[in-house]
Design brief:
Elements (H helix, E strand, L loop, with lengths): L18 H14 L17 E6 L5 H12 L3 E6 L11 H9 L5 E6 L4 H6 L5 E7 L5 H15 L6 E5 L6 H12 L3 E5 L15 E3 L2 H4 L5 E4 L15 H8 L3 H4 L7 E3 L14 H4 L4 H19 L7
Parallel strand pairs: 1-2, 1-3, 3-4, 5-6, 5-8, 6-7, 8-9
The protein binds phosphoric acid mono(formamide)ester.
């Protein structure tokens, strides 16, 4: 693995990476993934390095997989969140970073409700800053793990027909996936209620369809997104029941996609809303494959972005 070919200090979004950089991360993830299947799931690669997880929004998958990824590579880990830190006493985000940075960290993994928070903090530290989801902007490691999962199943992303359904407006996952998938040659279609799918998403190179029954036709991948109740301050659709009726992925809708089409979801899933419960009896879902690949992708990202001497 050639860590010299990634020259960027930070991973802030897939919009900023080119195809070769994305492929390097995916190749590295594929290579490191076998460590997860060893009896002793640990290598000394990042021994002596320190990874700080700063999570100012709830997380199950991203936080635990970054923590596990760092530990699998023998890095030391520290976690800072709103609860239990001096943030509760009013300490600013920047002061929090500067103080932890003074303890000599090598990487900060940052999730924040404000779009652009990791970009702002990256200017104040020499350590690598990894965006673990910023507001409604980007979630680069989620898209990388999604793309790795699609590659595992279909071999190549080139020419793949991917449908992303749901709350596109608030989705950092959709944005990062559009950037990454388009750079690797996929066709991306977006579907959802018009209130949650503004036409300007076409400018990112995606097709738009407000009729999910039409949109699912001939797709290889159907990725449903979570209805983000915490970001829905206004009524974007009349009711959850109505959302499911018009945009939920049901067995009837899935049958209109390609015969070998797969279901994906970044999680957490609102079962019975974005995805029907009985879908899993009809067709294989890749949702837990996505979670496993999340550890591999985050190992690759930490490996590639943490600079300096590493053990082999
Ligand atoms: N997909 C995702 O970001 O999940 P978490 O919010 O649990 O990290």
């Amino acid at each position: 693995m050639d860590s010299q070919s990634l020259t960027k200090k930070d991973l802030l979004g897939l919009n900023e990476l080119d195809r070769e950089e994305i492929e390097l991360i995916l190749d590295t993830a594929r290579s490191l993934r076998e460590i997860l299947y060893r009896p002793i799931k640990k290598v000394p690669t990042l021994r002596g390095k320190t990874v700080v997880n700063m999570f100012f929004e709830p997380s199950t998958r991203t936080q635990s997989s970054f923590d596990l990824a760092a530990k699998r590579l023998s890095a030391d880990t520290v976690s800072v969140s709103t609860r239990g830190s001096a943030v509760q006493k009013g300490e600013s985000l920047l002061d929090t970073l500067l103080n932890i940075d003074a303890m000599k960290a090598d990487a900060f993994v940052i999730r924040h409700w404000a779009s652009g928070a990791p970009h702002f903090l990256a200017r104040y530290t020499k350590a690598a800053v990894i965006n673990a989801g910023d507001g409604t902007h980007e979630h680069p490691t989620q898209a990388l793990l999604d793309i790795l999962t699609m590659q595992d199943r279909f071999g190549s992303i080139e020419g793949l027909d991917v449908l992303i359904v749901g709350d596109i407006l608030h989705s950092r996952v959709a944005r990062s996936n559009i950037f990454g998938l388009k750079k690797l040659g996929a066709k991306v279609t977006l579907s959802g209620p018009p209130t949650l799918l503004p036409e300007y998403f076409q400018d990112l190179g995606a097709d738009i369809s407000y009729d999910v029954d039409e949109a699912v036709k001939d797709k290889d991948v159907i990725m449903a997104l979570r209805i983000q109740k915490e970001r829905l301050e206004e009524a974007y659709f009349p009711s959850i029941r109505e959302y499911r009726k018009f945009f939920g992925i049901t067995i009837e809708r899935l049958r209109k996609a390609k015969e070998n089409a797969v279901i994906m979801h970044p999680g957490p899933v609102n079962w019975g809303v974005e995805l029907d419960f009985d879908l899993l009896q009809e067709r294989e879902s890749l949702i837990l494959n996505q979670v496993t690949n999340g550890v591999a992708v985050r190992m690759a990202v930490l490996y590639l972005f943490i600079k300096g001497e590493k053990e082999s």
